[in-house]
């Protein structure tokens, strides 16, 4: 990262495997305490594997992860989340058989702040109109909003978002993007996003993965203008 401030997340040379199949090769990255960074790459490049390694669902075989001033390479997921890591998975991270209200209550279980639910509803007011509705019947965009809101109820200082606008109608994408830009003023976001223009608009810095390796990294502007970018993202 170009910022001189201490990063909230510092990843050094991690290698992650599924069994004997290596998917990440010596990946290093840093995220600042505020602002957003993008993780880009074509299908299968290793973006979700990287997110799962950061949240602790997968253990890297080599390398280290430092979060908020502490080594956490071997820390269980639950402890990372308690320490301020939030994760909105690519697959819909909501309970379909529970209502919007119940989903938010579950998200707020570990939050002692009783006003947190109301505050989260000011971020995506549409959800407030759908509190009794089963989450499984929400539109794709509303489900993403609910998943982000649930993650925010954990008061994250670093929020990992795996394709927050995937399958979302373009009109709602803008609303989600605006809220992400607001959030990035206060916390750190790492955003995996297929939509290149959008990813580079929302973020200050970007990493491009190619077959599990960081092939390009730099300010989002520099990455946008890099002649290698299209080749790295083409199928
Ligand atoms: N559980 C698994 N077991 C074995 N291989 C896996 C597993 N999950 C993912 N992979 C493989 O790891 C590689 C990276 O997958 P990953 O999901 O991290 O890519 P991605 O960049 O997020 O792709 P996409 O943009 O399609 O979501 C792919 O070749 C994938 O087939």
TrEMBL record:
Q: Does the keyword Membrane apply?
A: no
Task: Enumerate the InterPro entries for this protein.
Answer: AAA+_ATPase, ABC_transporter-like_ATP-bd, ABC_transporter-like_CS, BCAA_Transport_ATP-bd_LivF, P-loop_NTPase
What family classification does the UniProt entry report for this protein?
Answer: Belongs to the ABC transporter superfamily.
Any idea which GO molecular function terms this record carries? ATP binding; ATP hydrolysis activity; branched-chain amino acid transmembrane transporter activity
Q: Which residue range or ranges hold the ABC transporter domain? A: 9-233
- The leader peptide range reads none
Q: Could you tell me the Gene Ontology terms of the biological process aspect for this record?
A: L-amino acid transport
Q: Which PANTHER family match?
A: HIGH-AFFINITY BRANCHED-CHAIN AMINO ACID TRANSPORT ATP-BINDING PROTEIN LIVF
Query: What's in the keyword line of the UniProt record?
Result: Amino-acid transport, ATP-binding, Nucleotide-binding, Transport
Protein name, as recorded? ABC transporter ATP-binding protein
């Amino acid at each position: 990262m170009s910022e001189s401030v201490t990063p909230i997340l510092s990843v050094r040379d991690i290698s992650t495997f599924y069994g004997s199949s290596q998917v990440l090769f010596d990946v290093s990255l840093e995220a600042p305490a505020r602002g957003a960074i993008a993780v880009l790459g074509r299908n299968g490049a290793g973006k979700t594997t990287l997110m799962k390694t950061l949240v602790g669902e997968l253990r890297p075989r080599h390398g280290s992860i430092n979060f908020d001033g502490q080594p956490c390479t071997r820390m269980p997921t639950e402890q990372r989340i308690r320490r301020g890591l939030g994760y909105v998975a690519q697959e819909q991270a909501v309970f379909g058989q529970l209502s919007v209200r119940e989903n938010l209550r579950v998200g707020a279980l570990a939050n002692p702040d009783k006003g947190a639910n109301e505050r989260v509803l000011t971020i995506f007011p549409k959800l407030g109109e759908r509190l009794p509705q089963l989450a499984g019947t929400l539109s794709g965009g509303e489900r993403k909003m609910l998943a982000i809101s649930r993650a925010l109820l954990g008061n994250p200082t670093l929020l990992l978002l795996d394709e927050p606008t995937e399958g979302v109608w373009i009109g709602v994408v803008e609303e989600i993007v605006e809220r992400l830009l607001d959030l990035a003023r206060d916390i750190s976001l790492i955003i995996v996003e297929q939509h290149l223009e959008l990813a580079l608009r929302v973020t200050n810095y970007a990493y491009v993965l190619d077959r599990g390796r960081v092939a390009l990294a730099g300010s989002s502007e520099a990455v946008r203008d890099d002649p290698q970018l299209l080749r790295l993202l083409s199928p």
